[in-house]
Amino acid sequence: MGCGCMIGSMLCLVALVAAALCTWRFGPWYDESTNTQGTPDLKALNTCDGCCNGLKSNCDLPVSDVTFAMVHNAQSSRANLFAAYNNLKPLEEALIAGYRGLMLDSCICDGSIGEKITNYFNGEGNTGENYLGFCHTSCDAGVRSPVKVLENIKTFLDVNTNEVLILEFEIIDNSLPELFAAIDDSGLDEYIYHSTSTDVEWPTMQSLIDANTRLLLFAHGDGIDSSCTEIDCPEGIYYTFDHFQQTNWNDDTCDVKGNEREGIGFFLMNHWKNNDADLPSQSNAEEFNTYNALMDRVKKCGDRIPNIIAVDFWDVGDVLPFVAEVNEKNVE
């Protein structure tokens, strides 16, 4: 009898904890459309007149010769109530601080338990309506509104006229048409750099700024899983691996993932290390994102310096000063 009461009490406790977690995770504050705080001040730090991404020496270089600090799974942050988050702070703060690249995952949220709970708290019932989100793996683990995110990216470009951004999308759930429509609706299309050929001769940073085409878009995944020479890519979006080579993640070598190819414009260093459960690790970032760790890994790349360095927990460590130093030495 006592054992049964104890088990019953434990089950009640588990149920209460689960309910509390659901309330925290999926309450009204979870829906970005209810945010009444307005658009944050997105004025960049460390910018200057006559600079290109913070340095005058970047301006005459092709964009493919400038090193960009990039946020991995930029939509996923503790601040935005993601489970197993990749970052502590939101992507908007990363842009302000000096990051000029964002990795974003697009997905379709389609009637999962998380959506049902969210709709319950919002008094909407179970609409069953699919919608585009920026998530990672599942909308239950966290999702950001593309309307808000793209609106804020556009505001950043509006306010900071000497800054060039790179967005790299992973397309999940065949969400490419919805993503393309969201980009078009956001007004970002006025900033997108377009080329008439997949064999791109990348312009200088100053040329992009002068033409006000300061946004480069790349994507891979569902619906864009092969070269743009083989499929019709949406206008202004390049297939990532037509133009990127990349290192592996979860290690500190500079080995190229896949086959090494000549003439590829961008070399992406995936610089994060998950924990033993293959989840994002702040403690690993505290080691990986230090100046010494970054320098040691870049040295292993030899003459091919990575021009995109993607990290988790972007505000941890020395990533931004390291990237600035790499760019300064690039013209010596």
Structure explained in plain terms:
The chain is α/β, with parallel strands linked by helices and 332 residues long. The protein is built from ten helices and ten strands. It has helices spanning 2-26, 91-97, 113-121, 146-159, 176-186, 205-211, 240-243, 282-288, 291-299, 319-329, and strands at residues 68-71, 101-109, 131-136, 138-144, 165-171, 215-221, 237-239, 244-246, 266-270, 308-311. Strands 1, 2, 3, 4, 5, 6, 7, 8, 9 and 10 form a ten-stranded mixed sheet that branches. A hairpin with a 1-residue loop joins strand 3 (131-136) and strand 4 (138-144). The longest helix is centred in the first third of the chain and has 25 residues, at 2-26. The protein is globular.
SSE layout and pairing:
Blueprint: H1 2-26, E1 68-71, H2 91-97, E2 101-109, H3 113-121, E3 131-136, E4 138-144, H4 146-159, E5 165-171, H5 176-186, H6 205-211, E6 215-221, E7 237-239, H7 240-243, E8 244-246, E9 266-270, H8 282-288, H9 291-299, E10 308-311, H10 319-329
Parallel strand pairs: 1-2, 1-10, 2-5, 5-6, 6-7, 8-9, 9-10
Antiparallel strand pairs: 2-3, 3-4
Helix pairs in contact: 4-5
